[in-house]
Sequence to fold (446 residues):
Amino acid sequence: MVERALLLCLLLIGFWGVVAKKNIIKKIFGLNILNAAAVMLFILEGNRIGSEAPILESGLAQVVDPIPQALMLTAIVIGVCVTALALALAVHLYQITGSFDIETIRERIQDET
Amino acid sequence: MGKRKAWSPTLQACLAIGAMGVVLLPVFLSQTPWPTVARDYLMQYGQDESGARNLVSAIYLGYRAFDTLGETIVLLVAVIGTMGLLSRVESLVNTVGDDDNTIQTVSAFSLRGDKRSSHVLRTHLLEVVTGKIGPIVLLFGFYVMLYGHLSPGGGFQGGVIIASGIVFLALGNQQDNTSALSKSSILGGIESVSFLLFIIVAMSGIFFGKGFFGNPLADSAYPVGFIVLLNSIIGLKVGASIGFMCIAMMGGHD
Amino acid sequence: MTTILLILIVLLAVYTLSSKDLLHGVIALSAISLLSAILFYILQAPDVAITEAAVGAGVSTVIFVWAIRHSQRKDDNHG
Fold:
């Protein structure tokens, strides 16, 4: 119960980073934190029904649920792909406008067009 | 139509976060028990049907192999997009004047010898240590990749470790002695060939009567060979594409 | 044990988003990845732990450091 409350806090912190921060890199930090919180939630829930890692050996107690773990592998790799593309876009914006601040970027792009 | 004074950004952010918290609260307060049907079925039949003792490998390479196909496509798209944007960033960097401080530190670290303006950041210590550690990390990556069906590991994990090994090899290039694995043409070739092999192996199940992504070796003595083959192909693809992306970011592509 | 790790991760997340130097934020993000890899190992998920450690501490940190080095390091307006 306490762990779920902490995970809700982590999700809201990530969401705050995406919404309220003015620096693009801080927004990308927020995306990463959101991803990490979602992965942690699934693994935590899958852990409730067992006590051993999902690798079969002889004489084993109940293993944890292996399906959330398989899905989270995909989620982690996709998270890093999104981060790479977002950072490439952020650096490109910096080279064009000279700043990471979204207000400055908006003004400078409006001046150019 | 009168003008409305916009709310302050802090208030807007608080309202957004509060709304998100209210929406997510039922997820975190639910008391329904996690279903155990899938775990029981997999504990009983997972090893017989796919041959792998690692149940997670049996899932993402056997029962849900479509997710793996989608993930390799997402990786491919991300690398293509980053490369396309990187080529524009490179051209913008080269047109900025020499009095920009950041450009000097960037070129001081560049992997290509001709672009390096000074040797301040690429010391001899860095090159010697990473050049010697690189093959060991590659070996560890291959081990993790090939033992994915018996112990924790598999294609993705081994692939990312192989990518780190490739980055080490690229950092450890001495002046005139470059490792073949850090050339962009070879890495691009490995990635394309392994993606093609992945599709061919996936379609081989059709010719043996088991359906798309079916295991053509399911009736033979070693059905686990299919999982080992798929692990190797995925590991090479992921390693080559992420290594390619990291080397291109450090300015090493030619 | 999981509670202690989660509290540390929450504190590091707050520090990541409110540090004035972007490089400090990147190092804190890498520390979050490390702590969550330990958490996954404790929660009996070794495959996810290996992936998170290799991806978070390796590839993700490298591309963040590249992005910051090609541009500025300080966060100008926010604290």
